[in-house]
Amino acid sequence: MAADQYQNDDERIQDKLKQKTWNEIRANDSWAIFKIMSEFVNGYETMGRIGPCVSIFGSARTKPDDKYYLLAEKIAFKISKAGYGVITGGGPGIMEAGNKGAHHGGGTSVGLNIELPFEQHYNPYIDRDKNLNFDYFFVRKVMFVKYSQGFVVMPGGFGTLDEMFEAITLIQTKKIAKFPIILVGTEFWTGLMDWVKAVMIDKFKNASPEDLNLFKIVDTEDEVVEVLDTFYKKYELSPNF
């Protein structure tokens, strides 16, 4: 990490620890509440007009010539041709590939952007009227899970894992319906899920063996669409709100 990055981190920590008066705290919190409310209202009003969608999660760092970028593009294309809209985080990498595939497939292409100091900038394949911007991760995640009827998880970093486990937790605790969670890339996901089974479930008993049925691991775009179609043959496809 560069020296200036250490300095920036140190300044941020010092600012957070700086003593503030009660009036300063109250004023800052009050304005934050209004900002949070505005993000929810704008998100609900925009997303509520969009039909059934599938969220695609994955790394912002994946390059356009990477096999998983190309695979995510194919998956999104096939998903859009199957009649689903596509929601991504709106940025580069896998997110761009998802929006690109949906765009070329003639489907709904939604981007839920987050303001970050690095990596994130919205991609050009999002429908112009479906490009939302957020300051708060938790508001953005609500939009993902409230308006998605399936989750496709490509290889990614901590943010991708956060989004994946959020979806699994909400389904496990029955806070949302049991929509498909599809992990793409056996080579990427097998080690983690082997640990979940061997350590979290079998050794420490911190989850149930049945929870392994909440997701599937696949490797191709055809398998993704097959999982979605098999699931929705049992139900009339309708918005999750």
From TrEMBL:
It catalyses: AMP + H2O = D-ribose 5-phosphate + adenine. Pfam families: Lysine_decarbox. Keywords: Cytokinin biosynthesis, Hydrolase. The keyword Hydrolase applies. The keyword Hydrolase applies. Its EC number is 3.2.2.n1. Signal peptide: none annotated. Belongs to the LOG family. This is Cytokinin riboside 5'-monophosphate phosphoribohydrolase. The lineage of its organism: Bacteria, Pseudomonadati, Bacteroidota, Flavobacteriia, Flavobacteriales.
